[in-house]
Amino acid sequence: MSNIGMGSVLVNYYRKRDVQDTKVPDVDFGELLVLDTADASPFMKFGDVPPGQIMSALYNNMIRAPIFQHKPNRTDFMMIKHVSKGEARWYLRSIPYYFVVGQTYPIQEIPAPHSRRVTTTIRHRFQVAAYRLMNRNQYHLLQMNKIVKIFPEYSDLQIRQRLKEFCEYQRRGLGPGLWRTKYNMPIPDEEGLRKMLTPEMLCLFESMLFGQQRLREAGYRKWGEKDDDPNDDNPDTKLSIDEQLAPWCLTRNFINAIQGKAMLKLYGEGDPTGRGEGFSFLRISMKDIFLRPGESVEDKLAEIESRPKSAHRYNVAEQQQIYRDEVEMIWQAQLRALASTEPPEIAEGDIKDKRMQMVIPDS
Which top-rank group of organisms is this from (predicted)? Predict the structure, then answer.
């Protein structure tokens, strides 16, 4: 998710009907992008824009998601609570526009805990904070107590060890007891600092922390420890379902899938809707037979064996076609559900968390 101050772009994609189509439709919100008939889908193989139609999407450097405009109810409003200096203020705002956001597709992979990307983000986050404190000082010196306040999760020893990577302690001279950068490591300018630590890097890092905390709350103390077998097409199968649903696994699976390096489960566990209107980003082996919902391996093998010898046996091309058909079916189900003006009917069985059910006490 984006942090405060970050924005997204609303893009309206229009695909030409044919080469002679010169239509430029008007859009009320966002920007318009016209797709040629042969242009790739903006939804990265998991949805498409039909010829002659407009599909809107929410777009930023981390995710892409289809969105659908709806007419807000006249009785709806937004209440905002703002707390400043211990004083709370409440504001009422009207809702002139209303959009429903579909399943989000990750563009960047969330790093796994203890990975090199996480280590780099932690180091750069600390360095950027220290450099900015130095820039506020007339002599570009750093008081350790100021950096301690920013990183209370670190001990004094840990902070000293991190400072020694790019600073040196002043025992005499202008700033005794203070820290300054090493002579061969000048303080980067503001543009350099922003390149060291981008907003997207922090968002991905915080998403990793969120997934890490969820695993801790589920009772996991160690995760992601598996034998790396280069011949294993799907190493994630060695993990529990909770570990497979970690954000670093799901984003890696999706990015590999759009690059043609992996196949997704599509249905079942991992489907955020729980009703076949979203994609499961769990990974399946590309060596196995892709099954539709309700099919079993035994039934599929029996169906293949029953074919006449002159017919084509089950092959990779057939598997890929079934896979694409199922992707299209889920995409269309999502479009119908989110574009519908009628509120969805939620059955009692759809409510998985019983704590969310309203309990009416006996009178």
Answer: Eukaryota
